[in-house]
Structure formats: structure tokens, C-alpha cells
Amino acid sequence: MEKAIYFDMDGTLANLYGVEGWLDKLRNYDASPFVEANTLLNMQALAHRLNTLQKNGYTIGIISWLSMESTAEYDEEVTKAKLDWLSIHLGSVKFDEIHIEKYGTRKSTLAQVKGGLLFDDNPKIRKEWIKNNPSGWACSEKEILIVLEQLK
Ligand SMILES: [Mg+2]
User: Fold this and answer.
1) In order of start, what are the domains of the chain with their CATH numbers?
2) I need a labelling partner for 119 at 20 to 30 A (CA). Which of 69, 98, 128, 138 fits?
3) Could you list which residues have their CB under 5 Å from ion ligand 1?
């Protein structure tokens, strides 16, 4: 595996689906759930671990999709909301790459480093990643801290 770790946001780091009325809001071009979402894990522990791994040579990145509903203006608002969320909850992490791209974009095509590790709550995305990153790996959101603890 290459020294690169990428994270999905919705359902992996951010509890988007726990925001009341999130789906209706997104369908009405309201970007607020993306910034209001709570965290799904201990962000202080995650940030500490990521900063250590980055010092050890790991590339750290975000690969997240825009909302399924898309207009140029809404895409811009969603991007801003997601960047705000990252600076609120992981402000101490200086990401090497942040990709916030059209819903459905193959994530393996977005990572600059091929053959790295992806954390994503969507099994189909993990499958696509592994298929196109034969030397890489993908894990669910439940394994983030456990897996990161094992990397050197
Ligand atoms: Mg997700």
C-alpha cells in the first residue's frame, strides 16, 4: 500500500444522515446539513493520528461528493459548507488534497496518489476503489481509528 489515506465525509466523518430533515433540505438546495452534521468519531484523536502519519510521509486527503441535486450555485454552497465543516472539526489537519466533486465521480480517479487507503461508508465505493487500486485498500467508517493505529 502507498503512503496515502483518503476520507469520505458524509456517513464516514460527518453524521449527515443524523441531521433532522437532511434529505428534504438537500432536495430544496439547502446546504446547511453539511455544516451542521455532528462528528462520527473522536476528532481530536483522529487529528492527532493524522498529523503524526503526515509527518511520517503519508499524504492525507478528502474525497467527497457534492449533493445529488446540483446547480452551479448550490455546488458552490455545498463545497463551502464542507470546507467549513473540515475547518471546524479538523482545523489542525492540513490536508494535502481536498476533492469535493460531482456526485457519482469514481473516487479512484480523483486521488493523486494511487494505491492508497480509502475510508468510506459506502461498500460500492470501497469496491470500486479496490478494483482500480490493486495495491490499495478500503475500509468502512467503523474501522478508522483501529486501522490508523496500526499504520507506521
Ligand atoms: Mg459517504
Assistant:
1) 4-150 (3.40.50.1000)
2) 69
3) 8, 10-11, 121
